Amino acid sequence: MFAIVGPVERRLEGALAELEPTAVPPRYRCAACGNVTRFDVTVRRRTKEFRHFTIGGEMSVDDVEVQEEVVEHVSCRWCGASGEQIEEQVRAEPLEGRQA
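Now predict its structure.
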């Protein structure tokens, strides 16, 4: 179901900020304590936004394009482990369309 691909550092270039339905997000696992649900993740993103301003000056962001995304640091919320202790697991198939 999962494949371990090693320590965490991920780059996405030219990807949309909203994940496409077929995109498979990574999942983390702490090798120190076995945690797979709670992590502190520091991410650096460079984005391009289409900002829409009303006549009254209020702003809304109508479209965001992620030009670069780097996961800089991941640490386990349970035991505090980080670095080589955090494994990035890739799902073998997308969440949607998976048969139970």
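The two ends are 13 Å apart (CA to CA).
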